[in-house]
Amino acid sequence: MTHIVTGYYGSGKTEFCLNLATTLAKTGKAITIADLDVVNPFFRSREREKALTPLGIEVMGSALENHVAQDVPALSFAFLSRIRAGQDVIIDLAGGEVGLRLLANCYADIKAHNFFCVFNLYRPETNSPDKMAAFCRQINAASRLSVTGLVNNGNLLGQTEAEHVLQSQKAVLATCEELNLPLAYTLVQEDIYSAIANEIISEEVLTFHKPQMRESWQG
């Protein structure tokens, strides 16, 4: 299965990709993360390669060596061989139409797939259901593949409280209803989830102890 992930800058799409990968890896599957984010030079999947490799997760980013620190958009599409083999591949796209252009190299190989759009209510570009729906429509218009499900990532790093997650869920659910899409995943911190588990409405829940893309000193 191919899992394509997009979202506005700061939505937490890469955090979602990493947590999805680690969850799938626990089932014993071979997992590949294809880091195709050529827009944002910070907080990219490839930065966590050393931590992910022991878990059986392969990260593919730049075609250049020492790709963790490379900002040259020389992308490797070697992950397409994993897709052809039927393995689980998570494609971490840059947000918006710029990221979608890279999918033009992948359409012929992508068969069974999910296309997730990650939303965080606390980002100004997606702080309402109307803006979220507009973003999804923009993605659908620019891509040969349509969004298949939404992801609620209503987190504010160390300041996140249960109400933040639930308020973001309310907005994402309203977007789901407008677009006739499922709320496929909720990404939520473990201790917060334990307090509101019966209030979470999504097909799947991914919990984390601490953000993978932030160091403790970054908040």
Tell me what you see in this structure.
This protein has 219 residues and is α/β, with parallel strands linked by helices. 31% of the residues lie in helices and 20% in strands. It contains seven helices and eight strands; from the N terminus they run E-H-E-H-E-H-E-H-E-H-E-H-E-H-E. It has an eight-stranded parallel β-sheet, sandwiched between helices. Helix 5 (129-142) packs across helix 6. The protein is globular.
Strand content: 15-25%
Oligomeric state of shown chains: single chain
Strand order, main sheet: write it out. 3-2-4-1-5-6-7-8
Put simply, the count of helices is 7
Class of secondary structure makeup? alpha/beta
Mean pLDDT: 86
**CATH secondary-structure class:** Alpha Beta
Q: How many domains comprise the coordinates?
A: 1
Say which CATH homologous superfamily is assigned: P-loop containing nucleotide triphosphate hydrolases
Series of H and E elements:
EHEHEHEHEHEHEHE
Give a nutshell description of this structure.
By secondary structure, the chain is of the alpha/beta class. It has seven helices and eight strands; from the N terminus they run βαβαβαβαβαβαβαβ. The protein has a single domain (2-218), classed as Rossmann fold.
